[in-house]
Amino acid sequence: MPLPDPEIVVLGGGPAGSSAALRLAVDGARVTIVSPPRVPATRLESLPVGGQALCDLPGLRRALDTSAVAVVARRELLWRERPETLEVTRDAPFLIDRARFDRACLAEAIRAGARLETSRARRDGPEIVLEDGRRWHPVAILDARGRRGLRARAPGLPQMVALPFRASDPSGVMRIAAVPDGWLWCAAGPQDRAEGALFCRAERVAGLDATERAALVTEALRSVGLLGAASGTPSAASLDWAETAMPEARVIRIGDRALARDPIAAHGLVHALRSAAQGSAAALTLLEGGNADAVREFVESRHRADVLAAKAVTEAAYASQARIGTGFWSDIARDPRPETASPPQDIDVTRRYALAAPLSRGAALIEGRIRWSPVIEFPASARRATHVGALRAETLTRLIGPPAPLGALLERLETQVPPTVARTIVRELLDGGALSPV
After folding, report:
1. Most CB within 10 Å of its CB: which of 3, 187, 346, 391?
2. pTM score, two decimals?
3. Is residue 183 included in any domain, yes or no?
């Protein structure tokens, strides 16, 4: 007897696709992953505490435990005028074996009940057409096929490629260093086995053969006191994104298919896991007959906010480099003294402020599904928040809606939360542009 068609199809079996399918299967959806046989990338990757918290399902936790090979004990940064070293004593990132993590995520999704279809397939609008002619009409499609086909790029930032390498370095050390032809990242796991990549302009390596690329990597490593060798072919590494995260109704792009981060902004795996959680919630909402307009607004607003954040972090990271002023770096337009994004240390409590925008209705993720909810808008990041701190948007608007000096707004908030929490909320509102002077 043939199996029933899937309710939800996930295109791609990488970490975004597999973790989304795992979440869907755990929620009881009939989900199929379509992923031809692939060889996962062999590399180490750091996963910060925030990313570890996204592994909140038993299956994802097992995948994390299986693939974590070390804890980052020390960070060394050769980026600004003076070398910086940070001994990590708490909230340390894990070093993840990406190939092992990818395989474990896929295995956990199948263990939870997701099916795996290894034949090739294409998307024809809302249909999935397999190479044997079968046609599926799922309720939702999650497209997690990687950065292939992305169009948009950040103006002013270079088109980058990654040249992977292996080196010898003390275990538990993670390094980021500016070098004349770009920058490099590497981290060392057990047995002092370090892996990383040199990131440089695409045109810098265009036309170079394997020997010439290896020489470029070797020289970059030597400039920061490391010995190593190239270990693979170049791969795309620029900040790129899709113009829309929902190109059609019921089709949702997740992971690198929606936003491929420049590694200088770090933690692409965090974005993959987060977008998988959001995408699976969107698919389940559609499966259960939820509001399709709310799903689209939520997916697109999160996509816009993610793109803005990635652009800001990437531009700030390149701009903060002050160690080298020649070669690659002399071609990048940058402010040598970028403004800090952190809020001011002191708040002028005498100045009058008001909410930049009135309370509005927005789509929000509530208890694992997407629903309409009152939200406060943060113009600086395109973020829409149902809560700021512990206060709901409607409560916060009622407390600070009427214009007043910040001191008075703080007093209103302190009727609901402790003074330190009230100041934290005000700082967040100011930094996000949700409060503006009048």
Report:
1. 187
2. 0.87
3. yes
